[in-house]
Design brief:
The complex is a heterotrimer.
Chain A lengths: L19 H24 L4 H25 L4 H35 L24 H32 L4 H12 L3 H15 L6 H26 L2 H9 L4 H12 L1 H16 L3 H6 L18 H11 L2 H33 L1
Chain B lengths: L1 H5 L3 H8 L3 H26 L12 E10 L2 E11 L4 E5 L6 H8 L9 E9 L2 E2 L7 H7 E4 L11 H11 L7 H11 L3 H4 L12 H13 L5 E5 L7 H14 L4 E5 L3 H7 L2 E6 L5 E8 H6 L4 H7 L5
Chain C lengths: L4 H8 L17 H14 L1 H24 L2 H4 L3 E2 L10 E2 L2 H32 L2 H16 L2 H27 L16 H25 L3 H9 L4 H30 L2 H6 L18 H9 L4 H35 L2
Antiparallel strand pairs in C: 1-2
Classes of the chains: A mainly alpha, B alpha/beta, C mainly alpha.
């Protein structure tokens, strides 16, 4: 079939988009508001950062109303006010996040030296210079504890997800509710529970293993729910195709469904790790903390990054607190890496 | 043999007995021509004194194009809608008629990547003029959607007046307005005793008439309807068609419809849209009577006689 | 073709008897039975864990409840007692429970409007290119460990928050909750509330954003077609649709806030007197109590801590249950 050539001299336009003139007015207005704010703060009784924020908000709202009055006439008052409020809300979310990230990086890098990753605090006082001692024990501890927690939690988490998506038994809703309820268990309660069972009832010692058990309780709902979401996305055709080829359900799930959801399940696991890697409270009750690097997860108190940060912070010594910020920075980087990896994996899956 | 046949449904029997293959084509052909005649007669029955368009006074489009991202969906539509008339837009699916309708009150721009060109002029003003208050435009040009969509959180009465609330208009005689709009939408008698009930408690057809009443409450000059009956049963469709005919006495109605009989029944003018793989275009427009009895364009004739679409 | 007599014959043989229904069941093979058993037991691990938590904490703390009864919940005293003077041990977490509620409510009051605003921004205000980065940033906020929030709250937020608290006291001091018994502003429920609020913002925002994104487009368009401004559309369509989802998200956030431990421990001064002057440096928190007393307590006090943990467990479970109920009820209504 021959395609007709459509010769129209019309160009696509978007008249509803903000045009250059309006953009210029907006920008000028914004700059005016920015410069006006310190001026108003200087002459008014409102002082300090909070005062400046209040003035900024008020001026921005007024300017917004003036501009929209000019563009759209009356009855835009509530709309402009609401717009200002909603922009402010978003700013109020991003401000603490930015401040937190900036502070952790800024203060954390002070104490970080090469030996932070090669030495532990065995013979170093918390307030010794940064060139002595390090967080090796904490990093190793976190690694081991999280690894064990992952090994315990992942099979159970995937089984839970499989129950919800493949078996769909009578108790599907109930199990889903339980998982939901479990995600609400406070982390301190998980720690207390493991402490009660292992250390009080069974008489075992504080150990990395106990910490890992506590973390796996917190990790399970995240892994189960994310894995369920992923398994749900696997088209039913695939399952039917597997069964139609004469496969048993077990073989279909193991050889078709789970492999198809592989990267999604990996995402679930990584999100679960990110969820628990920074947990402090349950570790206080289960691993107790240590200043030496320990690799044996049984019978010996262990260190972990969040606990290391927490304990140093509690000392109240300036140098120790700097070390605590350093620990926080390492922890933050670890969580960021996990988070970004999960995002990339998840994003690739969805296309 | 007779006994056997008697167990089959009578209609089926007839078909089997009286239908050699060769004959059926002829019959179909006859049916087609009949259809044209019947549509034309329907259109003729309902045709009224038709207003002539006076430029600068009513509602018109000039060289309207529409894009979705890179896809050129609609090209070069220039149409005039005389006051107090119903214009039907017909055409096969994907021909751009709904897109065109949505450019008429600037609903087109909600689709990400949408773009347009050309002008839509109401009372001598281009509604796409930069700086135009789009909410005012939509007050003047109301819209009724394919699926009835009353606001479920509001009662029937609140639904009718929701436009006032949404556009923050002040009005003193709300009760009167509510009754007037519901009456014009042909719903007053059915709901006058339960204005406090929720909109969702009505039937589909009633909900759609409620949506019409809601659109009328802000006193639009133009009412756009996007296949308003496609989700409704024939009875409700009839009621809504009556409503549309009555509305035509006071405002401009533009209605997109898949149903050619409906176009023939209710419209004064009909525009035929078609896309041959490229952007949709307005192939032909004229009085409904003309379009259905003596279409000028071959493609229009093919479409209304059912050769495609 | 159809007229052929043969093809019609089957119709005549219709006997009028409906054959018995046949059960369509596949007898699972042995391997599948094992598979199903394993998966099902895996699915019920959550139940087992939750049950074990309740069981062990109850067993360990039963003596505490037997001795103090309801006073454990309503009492305001916490002392190990003194064997020399013969003063008995007294354990009551009333002040801590009240403190937990006060701090969580402050957190919720701060987080809820901000979260709803942000969710609205992401769905209805932000330009397309900004939506995804914003969503990612807010998810990231949820992933930041609580000890870091505690650190930041103590060193960075506290100085600002003390200044805001002074302003509140100066201008709104006539309101009872802003009164100050004495001028100590550091480590107050107000500050702990802000920190917890920031921590639950991502949770509430995520749920609210999700609910708002499910608002039917045709309703939004209907509102705009009636000449609505963005805000009036949100008022008339989005907020009524999302209200119960927002409520569910708020409850979930509340549950998180009540279970928060180390961040609060670092920015709140634990004190066994119920305090409603939120700007004053005295508050309570069950989870922080456990952390703060854990290292130094023995035997009976330890059991009291377990009892406190049990109470916290039950309370958060109830809050979560309520949140689940709200969300479910909404889903069933179909809106």
């Amino acid at each position: 079939m021959s395609t007709t050539n459509y010769l129209f001299d019309a160009r696509p336009t978007k008249p509803w988009k903000i045009n250059r003139q309006q953009l210029a007015i907006n920008s000028i207005a914004f700059i005016v508001v920015l410069f006006l704010t310190p001026a108003v703060v200087a002459v008014s009784p409102l002082k300090g950062k909070l005062g400046a924020a209040v003035v900024l908000f008020t001026l921005a709202t007024v300017m917004n109303i003036v501009i929209s009055l000019r563009r759209q006439g009356t009855k835009t008052l509530t709309n402009s006010f609401a717009t200002s409020l909603i922009y402010t809300a978003t700013a109020l979310v991003l401000l603490p996040l930015a401040s937190l990230l900036f502070t952790v990086i800024d203060k954390g890098k002070e104490s970080i030296r090469w030996n932070t990753f090669t030495a532990d605090m065995r013979i170093t006082q918390p307030d010794a210079p940064f060139t002595e001692g390090g967080a090796l024990h904490a990093i190793v501890g976190t690694g081991i504890i999280v690894l064990i927690a992952t090994l315990i939690c992942v099979p159970i988490g995937i089984l839970t997800a499989l129950y919800l998506t493949e078996i769909k038994g009578r108790f599907e809703g109930f199990v889903r509710f339980l998982v939901q309820a479990m995600s609400g268990v406070p982390s301190i309660v998980a720690g207390l529970f493991i402490y009660t069972v292992l250390i009080v009832s069974l008489g075992l010692k504080y150990s990395g293993f106990a910490g890992a058990l506590a973390l796996s309780i917190l990790m399970l709902p995240t892994v189960a729910r994310t894995a369920e979401e992923v398994l749900k996305l696997i088209p039913n055709d695939l399952r039917e195709a597997g069964v139609a080829l004469g496969g048993t359900q077990w073989r279909t799930v193991a050889m078709v469904v789970v492999p198809a959801a592989r990267s999604g399940i990996l995402t679930a696991v990584i999100l679960g790790i990110a969820r628990v890697a920074g947990e402090t409270a349950p570790l206080i009750l289960t691993i107790l903390g240590n200043t030496e690097t320990r690799v044996n997860p049984a019978n010996v108190p262990m260190a972990a990054l969040p606990l290391y940060t927490f304990n140093l912070m509690k000392t109240g010594l300036n140098v120790a607190i700097s070390r605590a910020w350093g620990g926080a920075l390492i922890l933050l980087i670890l969580v960021l890496i996990l988070f970004v990896t999960a995002r990339l994996l998840g994003g690739r899956k969805r296309g | 043999m007779v006994e056997i046949n008697s167990k089959i449904e009578p209609a089926q029997t007839n078909e089997i007995q009286s239908e050699p293959r060769s004959k059926s084509r002829q019959e179909n052909k006859m049916q087609e021509t009949n259809q044209v005649a019947s549509l034309a007669s329907v259109a003729a029955q309902t045709s009224r004194a038709i207003n002539k368009f006076t430029p600068g006074s009513g509602f018109e489009t000039k060289n309207v194009h529409a894009w979705f991202g890179k896809h050129h969906a609609l090209a070069d539509v220039s149409l005039e809608f005389p006051s107090n008339t119903v214009t039907a837009l017909i055409g096969p699916s994907g021909c751009g008629k709904t897109t065109f309708l949505r450019t008429l009150n600037r609903m087109h721009e909600f689709i990400p990547g949408a773009a347009m060109a050309g002008q839509v002029i109401l009372d001598g003003q281009d509604i796409y003029e930069p700086g135009t208050d789009v909410t005012k435009i939509r007050l003047k040009i109301g819209m009724v959607f394919q699926k009835p969509n009353p606001f479920p959180s509001m009662t029937i009465g609140e639904n009718v007046l929701s436009g006032l609330r949404l556009a923050q208009l002040k009005r003193s005689n709300k009760e009167e307005l509510m009754e007037e709009c519901l009456t014009r939408a042909g719903l007053w008698n059915e709901v006058k005793d339960r204005l406090g009930a929720h909109g969702g408690s009505l039937s589909g057809g009633q909900q759609q008439r409620l949506c019409i009443a809601r659109a009328l409450a802000v006193k639009p000059e133009v009412l756009l309807m996007d296949e308003p009956c496609s989700a409704l049963d024939p009875g409700s469709t009839l009621r809504i068609e009556e409503t549309i005919r009555q509305l035509a006495g006071s405002i401009i109605v533009v209605i997109v419809t898949h149903n050619m009989q409906q176009a023939a029944r209710i419209s004064d003018y009909t525009g035929f849209f078609l896309s041959d793989g490229g952007p949709g275009q307005l192939i032909e427009v004229g009085t409904t009577n003309e379009i259905f009895s003596q279409p000028k364009d071959k493609r229009t004739e093919d479409y209304i006689t059912g050769r495609f679409g | 073709m159809i007229t052929s007599q043969d093809s019609l014959v089957p119709l005549t043989t219709y006997s009028g008897v409906i054959p018995e229904k046949r059960e369509l069941t596949t007898r699972p093979r042995f391997s599948d039975k094992v598979f199903r058993a394993i998966v099902t037991s895996g699915g019920f691990t959550s139940l087992i864990i939750l049950g074990l938590i309740a069981l062990f904490l109850t067993l360990q703390s039963s003596t505490v409840f037997r001795q103090f009864g309801l006073h454990f919940i309503t009492g305001f005293e916490w002392s190990q007692g003194d064997p020399e003077s013969g003063a008995p041990a007294k354990f009551g977490i009333g002040a801590m429970l009240i403190g937990t509620l006060v701090v969580s409510m402050i957190g919720l009051m701060i987080a809820l409007p901000i979260s709803v605003g942000t969710a609205l921004f992401i769905n209805y205000y932000a330009p397309d290119w900004l939506r995804k980065p914003l969503t990612i940033m807010i998810d990231l906020m949820a992933a930041i460990p609580s000890v870091i929030y505690g650190l930041w709250g103590f060193f960075i937020l506290m100085p600002h928050a003390v200044y805001w608290a002074k302003l509140l006291h100066k201008y709104l001091g006539f309101i009872p909750i802003f009164r100050m018994p004495s001028e100590i502003y550091e480590r107050s429920p107000f500050i702990a509330g802000i920190v917890v609020g920031i921590m639950i913002i991502p949770i509430i925002t995520a749920i609210t954003r999700e609910v708002f994104s499910q608002v039917p487009l045709d309703r939004v368009q209907a509102a705009y077609a009636l000449g609505a401004t963005r805000w009036t559309m949100i008022r008339a369509v989005v907020l009524p649709f999302g209200a119960s989802g927002v409520a569910g998200g708020a409850m979930l956030g509340l549950g998180r806030a009540m279970g928060e431990t180390v961040a609060i421990y670092l920015v709140l001064n634990l004190y066994f007197i119920p305090n409603f002057n939120i700007l004053f440096s005295s508050g309570g928190n069950v989870a922080s109590l456990i952390v703060s007393k854990f290292g130094e307590s023995e035997d009976f006090e330890l059991r009291a801590l377990m009892a406190a943990g049990l109470v916290l467990f039950v309370v958060t479970l109830l809050v979560n249950f309520l949140s689940d109920l709200i969300v479910k009820r909404t889903a069933r209504k179909g809106r």
